[in-house]
Amino acid sequence: MDNWKAIAYLLASGQGFVLSLSLIAKGIKGRRASLFLGLILLVLSEELLNAWAMQLRYHSQPDAFPFWNFQSYLLLTIATWFFVRLTTEPDYVFKPRHSLFFAPVAVEIIIRCIWQAYRRHTGIELPSLLDNPAWFFATEILPIIGMIAVLAVYAYKLHGFHAGWKKQSTVSSVAIYFRFYGLFGFLMLLTFLWIAGVILEWPVFSGIEVLLALCLFGLGYIGYITPEFFMLPVLPKEKPAERPDFARYDDPAELRRLANAFMQDQLHTRSGLTLDDLAAHLQLPPRYISYLINTNFNTSFNGYVNSFRVEEVIRKLADPAEQHKTILGLALDAGFSSKSTFNQVFKQHTGKSPSQFALVQK
C-alpha cells in the first residue's frame, strides 16, 4: 500500500511541476495572474514530492538530493496575495519593485542550503532548523498568519463584487459561483488543513495529499486553458445621483413602470433600442430614467436592457418550441444587433459563451 501511495505522490508531483512551469512561462510572457497561480501550484507539487520522499525514507539516504531545501511556505502566501490582487483589481499592475516581496523566500532557501551543505561537509550532526523557535515561527507560523490575512482580503473583495453583480444581473448559475468561489474555497480548505497539521498537530496530511493535489490540478488546468477564468469582470462604476431635479416623480411607481416596459411590453426585443426611445414610451425625461437605473441597479442603460435580452435567450434555450432556431436567431429575436455583441454580453452575464451554456442546458 505504501508503494502505491508513493507512486501516486510521485506522479501527482511530476504532473504538478509540468503544469506549474507551463503557467509560470505563460505568466512571464504577460499573463501575470498565471505566473502566481503557477507558483501556488509549484509549492503544492513540492509538498507532494516531499511526501513521496518520506514514504521511501529518501531523506536519510546518503546520496539524496536535498530538494526539500527549496520548499517555502512563504512563497505560497506571497504568490496568493499577488494572485488575489491581479484577479480582483482590474487596474492593478505587478511592477518590478514588487519582486522584493519575495526576498524572504530567497533568504530562507539560502540559509537552508548553507545549513545542509555545512552538515554534509563537516559531518557534524546539527539540530534541525525547525527546532529553533524563531525559525519555526518565521517559516511555519508566519505563512499561516499571512494566508489567513490574504484570504480575509480575498473574501472581502469577492463579497463586494458579488453584491455589485447581483445588482447588475439577475442571471446566476453553478458555473458563475464556481468561477467566483472555486479557488477561494480550495485555498480556505488548504489553510484549514495547514493549521490543523502544523499548529494543532492533527494527523491530517497523510490521507488527503492526493485529494488536494487533484483539486488544485483541476484549477490549474482551468487557469492554463482559460487564463481569464478567475478574473472578475469589471462592473460599471456607480454614477453620482442627480435626485434634486426629479423630486416630483414617485420613484417606486416609476420603477414598476420601467420593469413592465420590458417584462410585459418586451421593449428589449427592439433592436437598437435607445434611451430616448424608452423615455418616449414611458413619457419620462431620459436623465431621470438613467438616474433610476444607475441608482437602483448599479448599471448603465445598455447593461440594464442587455440583462433582459440575456434572460430572454436563456429562457428560449430551454423552450422546446424554440429548438428549431439557432442561438444567433434567438439572440436577434431578443434584440441583439450583432453576433459579436451578443457573445460578449452573454459571457459577461453568465461566465460562459452561448455555445458552452447551451451544451450545459442540454
Describe the structure.
With 362 residues, the chain is mainly α. It folds into two domains: 2-230; 243-361, Arc Repressor Mutant, subunit A (Orthogonal Bundle), CATH 1.10.10.60. Helices cover 67% and strands 0% of the residues. It is built from 14 helices and no strands. It has helices spanning 2-28, 32-55, 73-88, 103-122, 133-168, 174-198, 209-225, 251-263, 275-282, 286-297, 301-317, 327-333, 339-350, 354-361. The longest helix has 36 residues, at 133-168.
Briefly characterize the structure.
This is AraC-type DNA-binding protein. InterPro entries: Homeodomain-like_sf (IPR009057), HTH_AraC (IPR018060), HTH_AraC-typ_CS (IPR018062). The protein is mainly alpha-helical and 362 residues long.
Set out the fold topology:
Layout: H1 2-28, H2 32-55, H3 73-88, H4 103-122, H5 133-168, H6 174-198, H7 209-225, H8 251-263, H9 275-282, H10 286-297, H11 301-317, H12 327-333, H13 339-350, H14 354-361
